[in-house]
């Protein structure tokens, strides 16, 4: 049979760079042909050959209810009939803002945007505008979207300013970005000792999902908060992935830390382009039209996207939602660990709420460098083995995984059985 994915990939590559609109979709790290998805329902999606997969990426986080949740579909269909976009304010934007603020107590005001990149970029500008400072701190392995100042890796030496990770980003644009190792207290202390009076903000994924799944240690997260307070810098939690994913109150709820600014995305749009950033009133009122920090968006607060987000938030706010989701995710992680142990494979895994990560090593990594010591060939064999067996995990070893409310015990058991079969052939 002709592989329809191959045919589509060839067509795509003729008109879209690499055949994809976001690089990780191209399967470059794992090899092979990306699957072109034609439809999705619940915990599954189907590719161009009509092959079904259990979906553990969930659009990289947003699909926390599974695909096509009836209440969300209904809300979106109703909204579409009322118009797609007005470029004028709506009541639904207030409702969504109120819903977000009720769930994230550190935020007193919020502004809606269309992507996580836009939200992180805007939060950064706001932090610089509100503090009148230039320097920003970020950590190796944390991803905050692709704004120029954030496409940066550590330079040589400790607590130094970074080097661009992308062509097209002049070194001057990242000269105020300090890149530190995640969970490295000594580097953190040093950076604030050296540059504290110039630091506008520290931005962090407090549970990182872009270097697989790595938690900030409680001591590290606490020290980030203390040093920001002490030096007059703003602490920004990028919760685009963790917000409404690791729990109803995000990573800040899990860690018990109050950031100054919070960046949200993914789940708050329920699969539609929607993101947000927010924090205390005094800081948020620095934004245009009230204050001097400019920020805008033609499709911001889009009426269809806000309907989708609101319906999603309503479902995940129901009592017991996260307990059930966390239990399900833990059963996957425990099942995979047991399967690896039974086959004598080096393996470890961790999860919080509906987000998980696994590692082909015995320890849980604390930083990006350790994650990247993963054996590529072993990961790729596991990825393709699962894919062949109808299980779709992230096609790169540095990405987290996601379980939705629609995944059944049978789905989890089938996934664990598939993994064990692959492990047994090593
Ligand atoms: C996905 C992600 C972003 C970027 O969001 P986009 O909507 O892809 O622009 C930013 N920060 C984190 C933590 C993310 O996971």
TrEMBL record:
Pfam families assigned to the protein according to its UniProt record, in alphabetical order: Aminotran_3
Uppermost EC category: isomerase
Cofactor: pyridoxal 5'-phosphate
One GO BP annotation of this record: protoporphyrinogen IX biosynthetic process
UniProt keyword annotations, A-Z: Cytoplasm, Isomerase, Porphyrin biosynthesis, Pyridoxal phosphate
GO function terms (MF aspect): glutamate-1-semialdehyde 2,1-aminomutase activity; pyridoxal phosphate binding; transaminase activity
GO cellular component: cytoplasm
NAD recorded as keyword: no
Pathway the protein contributes to: Porphyrin-containing compound metabolism; protoporphyrin-IX biosynthesis; 5-aminolevulinate from L-glutamyl-tRNA(Glu): step 2/2
E.C. code: 5.4.3.8
Catalytic reactions on record: (S)-4-amino-5-oxopentanoate = 5-aminolevulinate
Highest rank taxon of the organism: Bacteria
Modified residues (N6-(pyridoxal phosphate)lysine): 266
InterPro entries given in the database record: 4pyrrol_synth_GluAld_NH2Trfase, Aminotrans_3, Aminotrans_3_PPA_site, PyrdxlP-dep_Trfase, PyrdxlP-dep_Trfase_major, PyrdxlP-dep_Trfase_small
Entries under SUPFAM superfamilies matching the protein: PLP-dependent transferases
Alphabetized Gene3D superfamilies for the sequence: Aspartate Aminotransferase, domain 1, Type I PLP-dependent aspartate aminotransferase-like (Major domain)
UniProt subcellular location: Cytoplasm
UniProt KW Cytoplasm keyword: yes
NCBIfam families (UniProt xref): hemL, PRK00062.1
Quaternary state and interactors: Homodimer.
Family according to the record: Belongs to the class-III pyridoxal-phosphate-dependent aminotransferase family. HemL subfamily.
HAMAP family: HemL_aminotrans_3
Descriptive protein name: Glutamate-1-semialdehyde 2,1-aminomutase
Source organism of this protein record: Acidovorax cavernicola
């Amino acid at each position: 049979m002709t592989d329809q994915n191959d045919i589509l990939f060839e067509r795509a590559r003729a008109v879209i760079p690499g055949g994809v609109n976001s690089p990780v979709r191209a399967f470059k790290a794992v090899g092979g042909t990306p699957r072109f998805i034609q439809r999705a329902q619940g915990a599954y999606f189907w590719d161009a050959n009509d092959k079904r997969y259990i979906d553990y990426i969930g659009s990289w986080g947003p699909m926390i209810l599974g695909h096509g949740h009836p209440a969300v579909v209904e809300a979106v269909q109703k909204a579409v009939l009322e118009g797609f976009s007005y470029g004028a304010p709506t009541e639904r934007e207030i409702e969504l803002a109120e819903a977000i603020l009720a769930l994230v107590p550190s935020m007193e005001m919020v502004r809606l945007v269309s992507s996580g990149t836009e939200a992180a970029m805007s939060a950064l500008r706001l932090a610089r505008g509100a503090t009148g400072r230039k320097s920003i701190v970020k950590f190796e392995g944390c991803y905050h979207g692709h704004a120029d100042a954030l496409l940066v890796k550590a330079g040589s030496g400790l607590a130094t300013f970074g080097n661009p990770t992308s062509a097209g980003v002049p070194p001057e644009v990242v000269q105020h970005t300090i890149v530190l190792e995640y969970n490295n207290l000594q580097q953190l202390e040093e950076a604030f000792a050296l540059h504290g009076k110039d630091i506008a903000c520290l931005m962090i994924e407090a549970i990182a999902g872009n270097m697989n799944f790595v938690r900030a240690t409680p001591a590290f997260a606490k020290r980030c908060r203390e040093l920001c307070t002490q030096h007059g810098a703003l602490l920004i939690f990028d919760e685009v992935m963790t917000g409404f994913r690791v729990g109803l109150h995000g990573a800040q709820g899990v860690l018990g830390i109050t950031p100054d600014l919070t960046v949200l995305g993914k789940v708050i749009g329920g699969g539609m382009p929607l993101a947000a950033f927010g924090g205390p009133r005094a800081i948020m009122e620095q934004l245009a039209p009230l204050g001097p920090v400019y920020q805008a968006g033609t499709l911001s607060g889009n009426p269809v996207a806000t309907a989708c987000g609101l319906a999603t938030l309503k479902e995940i706010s129901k009592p017991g939602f996260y307990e059930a989701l966390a239990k399900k995710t833990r059963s996957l992680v425990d099942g995979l660990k047991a399967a690896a142990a039974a086959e004598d494979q080096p393996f470890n895994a961790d999860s919080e709420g509906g987000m998980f990560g696994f590692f082909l090593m015995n320890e849980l990594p604390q930083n990006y460098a350790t994650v990247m010591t993963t054996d590529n060939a072993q990961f790729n064999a596991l990825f393709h083995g699962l894919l062949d067996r109808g299980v779709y995990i992230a096609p790169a070893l540095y990405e987290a995984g996601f379980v939705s409310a629609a995944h059944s015990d049978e789905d989890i058991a089938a996934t664990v059985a598939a993994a064990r079969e692959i492990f047994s052939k090593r």
